[in-house]
């Protein structure tokens, strides 16, 4: 009797569990196969941020039964799932139908309007299944009024600009911000009111300009002070450089809703930028003392040179400033030393030429040779021709360099390619060309290889190279006195000048130190290293490229042995061809050496040396 009730009781429990399962007992997200979504209201208004629409998601399993405890993901394109924060994604779980949940198999969230109007697309997602509904959000967001400014800041987009007219950056954007006590943007002024005043405190006074937009929308400019209006607490101006370098310091002041200063004033002062590097005003040549000449291996040498280019205040010019280069190695006519003898007449070295402003004529009434001056190059007579260079050494920079415009038709004047800008007298000039083979090229940091006839600055400096033939017919041209160099006719016509121009109206320099120099140290040699009496010693001097060096001077010294019982006397004479201690046209010297006195065994040493080179020692012994 006791066993049957127990069996019946167990069967009752089993049937109860089966009944519950049949009535939708699943409670896992993975069992979800369908979801439906609805909104309690189809529209919201951003003017009522506390109102909301309830978004409900009903989830079912494969049998169509409501699914409890499933996690549903909600997202929206507009609005927020929070009344106080911008939340566009959230999750919720489906309920069991109790009084504290959204309902059996239902998950719900609240959608608030947020600050943007439009159509909000709300998407619900569960176990790979999703669906959407839309809620219209209407109205216009009310922007909270920003407080008045508590501070002001100034910033410049470029902290270094260049003076106007040099082809570099000439302006900087100036940003002025009105800030609240918490660092946010302060409110703008009412319509028609300018609420920022910007003025120069320090400036070069070279014509700098401030440009900005006023409340009326008009773009205005001023050289001292400018009132402008902010947008979202920010005013943007442009500062343009003038013609002078220097520091720019600005003061910015906030203005109230009437355009007047606050009391106390809200302002700041800042040194915002520097205007640097005016136009090129000075060009200085320099040459390395050591290792400045390279043997190109094809009978030519290349000599390095440098340029320092500054404005009138000593600032390096802007990077990328182009320096035009030219070279003269043959002088066709000149009124400055050395005097050149043309066979029928000599140049007059009185420096009495003249120019006239707005005229293309260079006049030299004393030196009536413009039509007839002639030199010999390549075994041919060469007269002044069109495009030969005309240099005036003591003229203003803008008048120093010109080119012959046409064959001279007047004996005492020459027409050049453009007007002279000044009226000057007592001028020293020359007319010349490159006829001995010298070439000039420079370095452009932006290009590979050398650039013919120009160099480009970087940090105010530029490099250039002179290339010239290296043989005994040309070596040392321009390095020795024209009175000594007899290789080029007429004597004195072989002179070397390099011309550098940064601008036709501001910077031109003429340099006379760039000659056809040799590679030092020179080496003096002889086939004889010991003598015993009067001798004519055969010498030659070559440089490190084995080129014989004509017209090169050397020194001679004499020292005697410890016992000079016979009073040996040694006298070093001159090179027979030059009557001096200087090589001849061929870089050679027949050196006369005389001895007197002395007894057998007396000794002396003759030391022959070239500056920087290894001396040649010749021993003298009385037999």
UniProtKB/TrEMBL annotation:
Q: Which InterPro entries match?
A: Big_1_dom (IPR003344), Ig-like_fold (IPR013783), Invasin/intimin_cell_adhesion (IPR008964)
Domain of life of the native organism: Bacteria
Q: Which residues form a coiled coil?
A: none
Q: Where is the Big-1 domain?
A: 35-140
Membrane-crossing residue ranges in chain numbering: none
Concerning its family, UniProt says: Belongs to the intimin/invasin family.
What is the protein name for this chain? Big-1 domain-containing protein
Which organism is the protein's source? Rheinheimera mesophila
């Amino acid at each position: 009797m006791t066993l049957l009730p127990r069996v019946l009781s167990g069967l009752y429990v089993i049937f109860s569990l089966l009944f519950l399962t049949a009535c939708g007992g699943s409670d896992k997200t993975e069992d979800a196969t369908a979801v439906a979504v609805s909104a309690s209201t189809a529209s919201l208004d951003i003017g009522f941020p506390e109102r909301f629409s309830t978004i409900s998601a009903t989830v079912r399993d494969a049998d169509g039964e409501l699914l409890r405890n499933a996690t549903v993901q909600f997202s929206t394109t507009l609005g927020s799932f929070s009344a106080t924060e911008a939340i566009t994604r959230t999750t919720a779980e489906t309920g069991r139908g109790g009084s504290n949940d959204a309902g059996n198999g239902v998950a719900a969230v609240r959608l608030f309007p947020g600050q943007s109007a439009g159509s909000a697309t709300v998407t619900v997602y569960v176990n790979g299944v999703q669906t959407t509904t839309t809620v219209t959000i209407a109205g216009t967001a009310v922007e909270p009024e920003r407080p008045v400014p508590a501070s002001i800041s100034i910033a410049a987009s470029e902290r270094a600009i260049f003076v106007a007219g040099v082809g570099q950056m000439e302006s900087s954007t100036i940003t002025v911000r009105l800030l609240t006590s918490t660092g946010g943007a302060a409110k703008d002024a009412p319509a028609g009111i300018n609420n920022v005043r910007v003025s120069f405190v320090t400036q070069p006074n070279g014509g700098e300009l401030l440009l900005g937009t006023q409340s009326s929308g008009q773009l205005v400019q001023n050289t001292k002070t400018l009132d402008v209006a902010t947008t979202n607490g920010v005013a943007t101006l442009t500062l343009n450089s003038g013609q002078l370098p220097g520091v720019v310091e600005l003061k910015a002041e906030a203005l109230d809703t009437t355009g007047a200063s606050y009391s106390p004033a809200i302002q700041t002062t800042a040194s915002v930028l520097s205007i640097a590097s005016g136009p090129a005003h000075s060009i200085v040549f320099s040459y390395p003392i050591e290792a400045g000449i390279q043997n190109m291996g094809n009978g030519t040498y290349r000599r390095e040179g440098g340029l320092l280019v500054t404005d009138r205040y000593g600032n390096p010019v802007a990077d990328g400033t182009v320096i035009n280069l030219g070279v003269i190695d043959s002088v066709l006519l000149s009124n400055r030393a050395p005097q050149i003898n043309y066979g029928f007449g000599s140049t007059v070295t009185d420096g009495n030429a003249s120019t006239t402003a707005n005229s293309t004529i260079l006049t030299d009434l004393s030196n009536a040779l413009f039509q007839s001056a002639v030199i010999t190059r390549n075994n041919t007579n060469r007269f002044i021709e069109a495009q030969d260079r005309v240099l005036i050494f003591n003229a203003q920079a803008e008048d120093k360099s010109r080119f012959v415009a046409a064959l001279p038709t007047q004996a005492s004047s020459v027409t050049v390619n453009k007007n002279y800008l000044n009226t000057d007298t007592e001028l020293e000039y020359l007319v010349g060309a490159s006829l001995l083979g010298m070439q000039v090229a420079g370095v452009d940091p932006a290009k590979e290889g050398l650039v013919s006839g120009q160099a480009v600055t970087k940090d105010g400096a530029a490099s250039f190279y002179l290339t010239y033939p290296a043989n005994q017919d040309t070596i040392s041209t321009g390095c020795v006195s024209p009175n000594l160099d007899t290789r080029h006719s007429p004597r004195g016509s072989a002179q070397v000048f390099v011309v550098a121009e940064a601008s036709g109206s501001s910077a031109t320099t003429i340099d006379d130190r760039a000659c056809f120099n040799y590679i030092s140290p020179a080496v003096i040699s002889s086939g004889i290293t010991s003598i015993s009496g009067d001798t004519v010693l055969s010498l030659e001097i070559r440089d490190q490229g084995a080129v014989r060096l004509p017209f090169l001077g050397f020194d001679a010294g004499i020292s005697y042995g410890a016992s000079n019982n016979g009073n040996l006397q040694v006298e070093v004479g001159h090179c027979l061809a030059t009557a001096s201690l200087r090589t001849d046209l061929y870089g050679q010297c027949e050196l006369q050496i005389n001895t007197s006195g002395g007894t057998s065994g007396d000794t002396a040493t003759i030391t022959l040396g070239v500056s920087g080179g290894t001396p040649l020692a010749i021993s003298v012994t009385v037999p």
